[in-house]
Amino acid sequence: MPIGNPMHPRVSWILLVFWLSFSCFPGLISSAVVTLKSIEIYKTHEMLKSVKPVVYFRCKGENKTDLPDVKKPNEVYNFKGEESWQPLTNLTNNKCKRCGFYEEDSFIKSDDIFDEWEFCPSDFPHGIYTRIKEKEMNATFACPQCIPLATASETAPDSRNEGKGMHVFLVILIVMAVSTVIIFGMVAAYKYWQKRKRQQDQARFLKLFEDGDDIEDELGLDNVM
Ligand SMILES: *[C@@H]1O[C@H](CO)[C@@H](O)[C@H](O)[C@H]1NC(C)=O
Ligand SMILES: *[C@@H]1O[C@H](CO)[C@@H](O)[C@H](O)[C@H]1NC(C)=O
Ligand SMILES: *[C@@H]1O[C@H](CO)[C@@H](O)[C@H](O)[C@H]1NC(C)=O
Known about the structure:
By secondary structure, the chain is of the alpha+beta class. About 40% of the residues lie in helices and about 25% in strands. It folds into two domains: about 30-155, Immunoglobulin-like (Sandwich), CATH 2.60.40; about 165-220. It contains three helices and nine strands; from the N terminus they run H-E-E-E-E-E-E-E-E-E-H-H. The site of one 2-acetamido-2-deoxy-beta-D-glucopyranose has 2 residues, from loops.
């Protein structure tokens, strides 16, 4: 069918537009704020037990966030998320940061590490993340804005992948429906145009015949005469 070829660019255009509009949507949320909900340290790293620890949080390349209240081990400190030093940090699309809790050292040696890890938006599929390091600390973070980031994340395991699969399936379904409608429309238009053309050709042909008859009549008359 001659119509087969010119249809391809059009269908792929629609496919592209659909793909772009759907895949860009989760990208609209670019930054999510992370707050500390609670923390408990299980020990301090100071040799002199009388010295109060100075605990702080830091992500690589960012400023320190001191936790002025956290002074005693084995005590749970809860926060509202509105404290002067909150939020702790921002997380952006599908990008992890290297962050940790540290204790400032009163001697010249480098600061002690409670825990250091890759902090990712996908840690927050339900907006809450608990980080536990044995014998060191237990901290709970909140990031409600991370939920769409976690859902959009490629690395998100388990139930989140189902959502993504469903999403892709829906997009494919819509694209297929739209292309089917377009193909049928174009086939119908082509058929109609073909029919019209045939009718016109027929009319022209008949007209030609009538004209031809006239000429023949004239010629016949000439011959007789
Ligand atoms: C980090 O601290 C410095 C100096 O206190 C300040 O100028 C800078 O704006 C801070 N950066 C961020 C991201 O808060
Ligand atoms: C975090 O993002 C908010 C807005 O999304 C911005 O106002 C704030 O400065 C950011 N903080 C850091 C530390 O990047
Ligand atoms: C860590 O802290 C959270 C919140 O305070 C608590 O629910 C959880 O049981 C703690 N986990 C451990 C292992 O201490």
